[in-house]
């Protein structure tokens, strides 16, 4: 998709990947409605991005993705401000093995809700123009990891859901594409908290003592590496059903290149 003139909705955009993806789209001439549960972080990012790209190009909305009404309001506010939605990025996520039910709510249920809401708004029958939905999974959506079992389950779920909808001829006929991004370890606050504990000092992964060894073995990507892959997906002529993994050793690699189910 050509990004210039398009409108994107991004969840979890106050910091980390969400903020970097917002900036990358703005740089290419899109308008961005980004959201987060973190109001002060969101307002700070709004201020920085508006200074660079103009007040009329970027808009922050407070949205806890686990609250259906707030999620619906995010779409309403984007449509009211920018009149259309062409790109949806379900990026908000948490890593918290002690709160595995919450991990399912944020990483899985909310990602599904964001996808269904975007499908509704992008449907030409509802005044939409089609579009692209990118769901942020992880290398943890492709491989098991005994220090992150609940997180791994949610990230596998994202791939199953997104790849299945991408096969649906209905959405294909509406000009809607769905793809998944699978970054490996990347230097954001999520990684720092996994290594050192969260703001309250609680550990978010099992066996944090193993972190150093695992990271030394697998390496750490930069946010720029992942943003480059994100933009590649968005700008591709057809990204439907794509699963793009990025890790330090291999770089970018498309997975499940055969997009059909063996028996269907
Ligand atoms: N950092 C890493 O190594 C990797 C991260 N990911 C995924 O990338 C996505 C972004 O992660 P990072 O930028 O690294 O993390 P981060 O922790 O820096 O940013 C996540 C953002 O999501 C927001 N958020 C959390 N719960 C929310 C909720 N209920 N409603 C709305 N916003 C909420 C947070 O306030 C924060 O601004 C997540 O889905 C994560 O699972 C995937 C692979 C690797
Ligand atoms: C050991 C330190 C754990 C820190 C975890 C912090 C953030 C991780 C976010 C992720 O999304 C996890 C990404 C990848 C891990 C999953 C599988 C690792 C195996 C990948 C491989 O073999 O290349």
UniProtKB/TrEMBL annotation:
<dbReference type="Pfam" id="PF00106">
    <property type="entry name" value="adh_short"/>
</dbReference>
<dbReference type="GO" id="GO:0016404">
    <property type="term" value="F:15-hydroxyprostaglandin dehydrogenase (NAD+) activity"/>
</dbReference>
<keyword id="KW-0560">Oxidoreductase</keyword>
<dbReference type="InterPro" id="IPR002347">
    <property type="entry name" value="SDR_fam"/>
</dbReference>
<dbReference type="InterPro" id="IPR036291">
    <property type="entry name" value="NAD(P)-bd_dom_sf"/>
</dbReference>
<dbReference type="InterPro" id="IPR020904">
    <property type="entry name" value="Sc_DH/Rdtase_CS"/>
</dbReference>
<protein>
    <recommendedName>
        <fullName>15-hydroxyprostaglandin dehydrogenase [NAD(+)]</fullName>
        <ecNumber>1.1.1.141</ecNumber>
        <ecNumber>1.1.1.232</ecNumber>
    </recommendedName>
</protein>
<comment type="similarity">
    <text>Belongs to the short-chain dehydrogenases/reductases (SDR) family.</text>
</comment>
<dbReference type="GO" id="GO:0047034">
    <property type="term" value="F:15-hydroxyicosatetraenoate dehydrogenase activity"/>
</dbReference>
<comment type="function">
    <text>Catalyzes the NAD-dependent dehydrogenation (oxidation) of a broad array of hydroxylated polyunsaturated fatty acids (mainly eicosanoids and docosanoids, including prostaglandins, lipoxins and resolvins), yielding their corresponding keto (oxo) metabolites. Decreases the levels of the pro-proliferative prostaglandins such as prostaglandin E2 (whose activity is increased in cancer because of an increase in the expression of cyclooxygenase 2) and generates oxo-fatty acid products that can profoundly influence cell function by abrogating pro-inflammatory cytokine expression.</text>
</comment>
